[in-house]
Amino acid sequence: MMRNRAPHPARACSSVRTSLYSVYIPSSSAVFTVRTSHTGCARRLKASKQLFHKDCDLGELQSSIHSLILLLRSSLTIIMSRHSSRPATPIITLYDLKSASPQPWAPNIWRIRFILNFKRLRYRTVWVEFPDVEATLRAIGAPASAMRSDGRPIYTLPVVVDPTRNPKAPHILSNTNNIAEYLEASYPARPVFPEGTRALQTLFVHYIQEVFVKPLLPIMVPLSHQNLPERSQSHFRSGPGYPGAGLASPQFQTLPPGPQREQAWLAVKEQFDFLSIVLDKNVGDGDGIVAYGHEVSYADFALCSVLIWIQRMAAQDGWARIREWNSGRWVRLWERCKMYMDEY
Ligand SMILES: N[C@@H](CCC(=O)N[C@@H](CS)C(=O)NCC(=O)O)C(=O)O
């Protein structure tokens, strides 16, 4: 179906007029704006207006515009722009956690963002607040990422919905590593798991996730909590699953400047030092910066996602320190990953 907005009132035939037409194409849920600027006469303009009153699809739209050009043979330019709440071609949706700032911050979710960017896949982000994670994911039919011991499901982000292969039955995936493997299998161009590296990369990422980040948690969890929207903060103070946590819970207390905080950073540095020694082993046959050879891979994205988390939540107290550690190695890794840090 096509609808039009009334063109600007006709003036003298010699003057330049602009007319705007909003054209809705149901098959692609797209709304096009067709702007004509011309020096045609009012009679011809009226005729062109009628063209937009009938039902048409994209092909008909094109032929309508062609007829319009023929009708308004005098100096005519047609500018088409598409404005649609829903994209015409289905694209991947990434569900991410909303913080108080408009930037993505959560390390698990950055791992997927990195892969989407690296593979140059089109995607959009849906921002979800912590208190809404379960309801949102249930509503879209996302699988739980784990089960509690009592059998209740646990819903977490990231979640990816990929309708590109079958818009009527999109793939809906949870669990970071699971999503990573799905994206690699479905979009093998520009691999993030170069041949034969899957096992070692899985081990590396497991280490980052389960060991490397552990000493960071007492520092980063309270800082991340403070950067959440107020509703999310209260969810953690009093929400189900966090009984009696209360405002005074050490989980949410920022370490005050002083020996306790310095001690915490020292424990973090030990992990960075260890990893630096490991990565140094690649100097010679690799570049010594990335985990495998000379190109970035999933392992680097897992590590750099943690760097982004620190940079976003603890720019001064955290990232400013880490930049100086291990002869600037972590800044060099950041630079290698920087071109895949787009935020859509
Ligand atoms: N096993 C999941 C864990 C992901 C996870 O813990 N996500 C957190 C945010 S970083 C989450 O969504 N938590 C939801 C909640 O606590 O309600 C994965 O690897 O993706």
TrEMBL record:
CDD domains: GST_C_family
Positions of the Glutathione S-transferase UstS-like C-terminal domain: 199-340
Domain of life of the native organism: Eukaryota
Alphabetized InterPro entries for the sequence: Glutathione_S-Trfase_N, GST_UstS-like_C, Thioredoxin-like_sf
GO molecular function (one): transferase activity
Entry keyword Transferase: yes
UniProtKB keywords: Transferase
UniProt keyword RNA-binding, yes or no: no
SUPFAM superfamilies membership: Thioredoxin-like
Protein name per UniProt: Glutathione S-transferase-like protein ustS
Species whose genome carries this gene: Mycena sanguinolenta
Organism placement in taxonomy: Eukaryota, Fungi, Dikarya, Basidiomycota, Agaricomycotina
